[in-house]
Amino acid sequence: MASKAVDFLDVINGLTRKRVEAMRASARAPGMIKAIEQRNSEGYLALIAEYKRASPSGVIRLDIDPWTYFNAVGQYATGFSILTEPIYFLGSPIFIKIALSYGKPILYKDFVISREQVMDARELGASSVLLIKRLLGDSLWELADYAIKQGLEPLIEVDNEKDALDVINTNPNVMLGINSRDLNDLSISLGRALSIIRVVRGRANIIIAESGIKGVEDALKLANEGANAVLVGTALMRNMNLSRELSEVRVH
Ligand SMILES: O=C(O)c1ccccc1NCC(=O)[C@H](O)[C@H](O)COP(=O)(O)O
């Protein structure tokens, strides 16, 4: 009994020391756009690995700490997507601080609706910030311009053709996130994402396919259609070894 208590305290002590060390980090993550372009120029689809413990549909996995995750997927990922939203996704800003030491681009992933959140992303050291077109409506470009002024690269997420065209007609230089998940009913349709990509490929600077990507077969379809990167959460949380296979998918 006594030795169990000591073991546990040792674990807590070790993890807390690492967490405090991360809190002190003042680094800035490198840019996502350049990293994706570099990966594509080497002939590969870029992989953005998301640290995602839960979603509105329920808990995904709580038994992987962020160090274990970043260590496992870091060598294969072009960048990280880090959920900071605490209620539905059990995210935290500390995960960004921890990710900084891996030297990869970092996307701040929350339902961003305010300048304060953009500032938070910047102060934490993220390189990009997620802006969801359907969530922001008319305030999208005001917030996107603010993020750019703060030195962040906005990832503008859409889930339909009209919004995708709207984004590239307004600013083709931002990263365009094409979500397979319908944000009304949370249903996933890779087919819908593929048809949106078909419409915008060659006109958007960077296309990132998001959500519902289960493995190499899905990633290949998206790459063949014109995606520059895939953003994968749930499947990687369930099987971190998938990162190696996904990192080997080629672009043309
Ligand atoms: O993940 C959800 O269920 C979700 C529900 C409502 C709004 C947003 C949601 N997800 C945010 C994301 O962008 C995903 O975490 C990301 O695309 C990764 O998706 P997946 O690989 O399917 O976990």
UniProtKB/TrEMBL annotation:
It catalyses: 1-(2-carboxyphenylamino)-1-deoxy-D-ribulose 5-phosphate + H(+) = (1S,2R)-1-C-(indol-3-yl)glycerol 3-phosphate + CO2 + H2O. Residues 24-247 form the Indole-3-glycerol phosphate synthase domain. Belongs to the TrpC family. It comes from Vulcanisaeta souniana JCM 11219. Pathway: Amino-acid biosynthesis; L-tryptophan biosynthesis; L-tryptophan from chorismate: step 4/5. Pfam families: IGPS (PF00218). Its EC number is 4.1.1.48. This is Indole-3-glycerol phosphate synthase. GO terms for molecular function: indole-3-glycerol-phosphate synthase activity; phosphoribosylanthranilate isomerase activity. Keywords: Amino-acid biosynthesis, Aromatic amino acid biosynthesis, Decarboxylase, Lyase, Tryptophan biosynthesis. One of its GO terms (biological process) is L-tryptophan biosynthetic process.
